[in-house]
Here is the input.
Amino acid sequence: MNKRSGFWSRFRKNKMAFCGALMILGLVVIAVFAPLIAPYAYDEQDFLVAQEPPSSEHWFGTDEFGRDIFSRIVYASRISLEVGFIAVSIGMFVGGMLGAVAGFYGHLIDNIVMRFMDILLAVPSTILAIAIAATLGPGLFNLMLAVGISTIPRYARIVRASVLSLRHLEFIEAAQAVGSSDFRIILKHILPNCMAPVIVQATLGVASAILNTAGLSFIGLGIQPPTPEWGAMLSGARTYIRDYPYMTIFPGLAIMLTVLALNFLGDGLRDALDPKLKR
Amino acid sequence: MMKKMFLVCAFVLSVVSCAFAQGDTLTVAVPADSKSLDPHAAPDLASTAVMTQIMESLVTIDSKGEIVPLLAESFEKLDDLNYKFVLRKGVKFHNGEELKAGDVKFTFTRAVKTGKVIDYVVRNIDIDNIKIVDDYTIIVPSRTPDSSFLACLSHYCAGVILSERAVNEAGENVGTQPVGTGPYKFVSWQKANRVTLERFDGYWGNAAKVKNLVFRPITEGTNRCIELETGGVDVVTSLLPIDVNRVEENSKLSLIRVPAPSVMYLGMNISEDPIKDIRVRKAISLAIDNRAIVKIAFKGVGLPARGPVPPTIKYYDASLPENLPDLDKAKALMEEAGYKDGFKTELWCRDDKSYIDTATIIQAQLKKINVDVDVQVMEWGAFLEKLKQREQKLYLQAWNSVIADPDYSLFGVFHSSQKLTGLNRSVYGNPEVDKLLDEGKLVGDSPEREAIYHKLQHLIVDDVAWGFLHVNELLIGMQKNVKGFIFDPSGNHKYYQVSFE
Here is the structure.
């Protein structure tokens, strides 16, 4: 109890983190209520108003098909959050499990799993995601998988390190002494105790997953038209950057603000969860 | 520190630019890097645009569309099958060898035997019966009577003549050590950066006017235009439609706009339900407003297509009606065919902005007749590979008649013999069309041949073998001081007569 209230008071004091959390909350609200917020449908083409600058009718202007950019950005927040959170969940779950098993059993299993993770880590995660997405083909699900898989080794390493430090503590030995199964020990005793660094990594991970998604869509490996996605919107608008810069500015801003908010939040969480790390 | 770095940079730049003094070097920006400089391995425009400076064919097509001699001094059609070529004397390859009939025989044999990608052009050369009369006279027979045979030999990569010795010496590296008879010889190739060519002093014709010719692949269209505006390049061979006004209004630049010999079409896999049903195809065609595609995806550049033959190719039938949309009729046809509630289908396209835009427009327009289109954008190589496997439902493609003959515009893409392995990716077959296409190959140019191709265009349009979308324009921008540019409708422009004012 005491520990938790300490976390809250530390977190609340950090204005940037609090601000980031609010922004993310706002984004979630926008994503959930997208149809109510967006004034137009995201795929509604109207060639008569193609490429109009921002106005009271179209807040962020219109794209080359006369689609409302504001509405598309609102809908695109759904994709970004969806991919961000699901990809991180994939990475966190698979990576966490692998890391826990490797750390708990040690020796040969540890060696096999972690050397494999090292191989994955040797490839930059963006390149890895590109390779996976190119092999699987474009599409929302494949995108999540590609971004998710590329983050597995990071979680595996974090969890393994925590498990190694917990492995020989008394309460684990006690659990073993009363005959708990390995599975139960890992799940009930070890994992909950190494959540703090994982949560921090996950928050920052969502930010990089969103960036990766936008990057993959930008090079055409992501979401297929007409579904709006920030990176794909940027990519489609880059041809027009000299004549209609607003077409790139708004999706770019959306990516920037989201990633910024997630980074604030992640930093704040790290400071609050682990005060020793604070400068 | 920064100042020092700046000075060093400035110094390096000035040294580099001195090495290529202005007036000595013509720099051309192209949209993609060459795949290979082996003419039998890479028939794509990015590769042939470079190779056409280095290599030459026996005959070529002049600006009037007539076949004229090039490396051959003269040619003669002996009978239905045999063509005699008398070679120009004293033509030198870049390695110093003289062009002999043996090189011609060697090259055609190699083209037929190893050139899988150019098979559709050279397949009719009867390599077993090529007769060398003497060093400068050769008889090249065709397997079947074919009125487009000479046109095929003028092809930009399938028809060029290589040096037998150079090819044998290069072994595996033919694609990076090209040797030809052209006005420019190959110097170096930095992948994805530049191909450098230099004037060949032993050229048999008029020597190139500018000493160095550099091709720079710049994939981003916006950047090609900026490079042109800032003077980084002298010629840009494919500007984006959106940059047309910018170049036109710039007093330092000039723009060439010419209709391209190509038709962009909506391919439909006719072997599969429900597209098999001609009423469905008609409905799809009637639901699409190709004027919107021209206006939005191509920013008003080019024309809405009416039929399968590009308007600049001979025997184009100008009497074909415009493809105007008619939503009510389309809906009625869908209902008649039993698809009132529509169906789900896929539309494949390459990852090119205009194509993705076109796909997005078609997707929205077909939604109005309840056809739910899933657009799948693919990388060019993957796209072609998947088309080969005939898994397509709808796809976007353009067919470029690089050989200016209606046979080339139609045979490969509509003859039923090409259904399974050839370019007939719509899997279209109509016995009457087949018969006329075969006839068109046999008949020499005449009003009779014109009638055949007019009839063919009407038949293909009536069958809705494609959805006819767009006839593009070639947009070439250059500095005002560039003179003597010779435009080539296939995009393989030659630069040896270009000079600076």
Notes: The mean pLDDT of chain A is 85. Chain A touches chain B through 19 residues (CB under 8 Å).
